[in-house]
Amino acid sequence: MATTAHAVHAPPNSDLPPAPIETREGADSIRRRLRRERAALSDACLREHSRSICEHARRCLRWLRPGTLAGYFGIRGEIDLTPLLIQQARAGVRIAMPVLDRHRTGRMHFRSWHPGEALCRNAFAIPEPCPAARRIWRREITAVLVPLVAFDAQGHRIGMGGGYYDRYFARRRLGQSRRPRLIGVAHDFQQVAGIAAQPWDVRLDGVITESGWQFFSAD
């Protein structure tokens, strides 16, 4: 993963592995392949990657200093961010977690979550805050830890295919100056050489893997 500087002067980042060789796979093929690889990780490997990523994320967040941090509950080989979210909550950061909209297909919003609170399960059996939790609005969120299936060195991302994050953080809904920092969370092997971005795709500002973290150029 090549290290680049963010337009707003990111601090020095960890040395990261070189970008993988070029691939001509389409998004659907990449998604299937990397989901299989991710699901095949051993429990020990997933724990180690999660531990490393949570530590890198703590360092990154010390620089970002978010007032409200949006996270997610990892499933099927995704990074477990729970220890990080608990640590941030204890440090006084407000935690927001994604909730699927029950009335609008393909939409989501965020609600507050405090460690120890009961969780509900959505249609995909993913834990999420229950309806009684306070809703957190876009303008309140300052940094977002974004799940993904693949990413490239320009900050383009392939998700699960539902388009939830792209819709929620679309530029037309929230001006660039007010948009929160979008930080992808992934295993090193999820980096690909290039992703064909669509007009509606929202670029990541940075990414954290088990090897370190970086911010992407704004160009």
Automatic annotation (TrEMBL):
Region described as Disordered: 1-23
One of the record's GO molecular function terms: 5-formyltetrahydrofolate cyclo-ligase activity
CC cofactor: Mg(2+)
Enzyme class: ligase
Residues binding ATP: 157-165
EC number assigned by the record: 6.3.3.2
Keyword list, A-Z: ATP-binding, Ligase, Magnesium, Metal-binding, Nucleotide-binding
Keyword Transit peptide: no
Pfam families, per database record: 5-FTHF_cyc-lig (PF01812)
One GO BP: folic acid-containing compound biosynthetic process
Annotated positions binding substrate: 78
Protein's UniProt keywords contain Transmembrane helix: no
Catalytic reaction annotation: (6S)-5-formyl-5,6,7,8-tetrahydrofolate + ATP = (6R)-5,10-methenyltetrahydrofolate + ADP + phosphate
Family indicated by similarity: Belongs to the 5-formyltetrahydrofolate cyclo-ligase family.
Protein name: 5-formyltetrahydrofolate cyclo-ligase
Name of the coding gene: ygfA [C]
